Amino acid sequence: MTRISALTAADRAHWQPMWDAYLAFYREDLPAVVTESTFARLTDAEGDIHGAVAWDDAGGAVGFVHWLEHPSTWSTPGYCYLEDLFVAPDGRRGGVGKALIDHVVAWAAERGREKVYWLTAEDNATARSLYDRVAHRTGFVHYEVATASE
After folding, report:
1. Residue 124 CB neighbours (<10 A)
2. Whole-angstrom Cα distance, residue 105 to residue 68?
3. What is the DSSP string of the chain?
4. In what order do the strands lie in the sheet with 75-87?
5. Model confidence, pTM
6. What are the pLDDT digits (tens) for 87-110?
7. Which of 80, 81, 118, 147 could form a disulfide with 108 if both were Cys (CB 3.0 to 4.6 A apart)?
8. How far apart, in whole angstroms, are the C-alpha atoms of residue 121 and residue 128?
9. 126, 92 in Cβ contact below 8 A?
10. Which fold has domain 3-134?
11. Contacts of residue 103, Cβ cutoff 8 Å, sequence gap at least 6
């Protein structure tokens, strides 16, 4: 049975290898300062982003999820954006991903948020097989433009 708990500073040794694998999957190479800042924000109880870890029966970390909430021009209560979801290869297709999504949905519902939404890569077939079962595809296409802030 998968157990989900809030990400804490003590979880760093479990979280870091999964974070590194997640970034490698998306072919991202973030500066160490970004990872440090992200982990600090995720483990700050008063922070603006949130995280949870999935644990297997033996007490090993098998996945994580990160999310944030934000206001919306289309909703009075606002939305919850599930930004990162990772399940270790040996935990896939065993209900871990769904348990992590359910955790975020319950969190958002407790806070009165209207919906939880997320993005994934078109070719992420493994994750999409889960997402197609637990959510509906909106048909929106994602665009982005980098700013010259750095």
Report:
1. 14
2. 12
3. --EEEE--GGGHHHHHHHHHHHHHHTT----HHHHHHHHHHHT-TT-SSEEEEEE-TTS-EEEEEEEEEEEETTEEEEEEEEEEEEE-GGGTTTTHHHHHHHHHHHHHHHTT-SEEE----TT-HHHHHHHHHHS------------S--
4. 3-6, 50-55, 61-72, 75-87, 115-117
5. 0.93
6. 999 888 889 999 999 999 999 999
7. 80
8. 9
9. yes
10. Aminopeptidase (3.40.630)
11. 4, 52, 65
What is the pLDDT, as a whole number, of residue 150? 59
Span 9-43, pLDDT tens digits: 999 999 999 999 999 999 999 999 999 999 999 99
Which distant-in-sequence residues (6+ apart) come within 8 Å of 117 by Cβ? 79, 80, 81, 82, 135, 138
Q: Give CA 56 to chain center in angstroms.
A: 18
For 120-138, write each residue's pLDDT tens digit: 999 999 899 999 999 999 9
The reported pLDDT for the residue numbered 91 is: 85
- The angle formed by the CA atoms of residues 56, 18 and 106, to the nearest 5 degrees, is 60
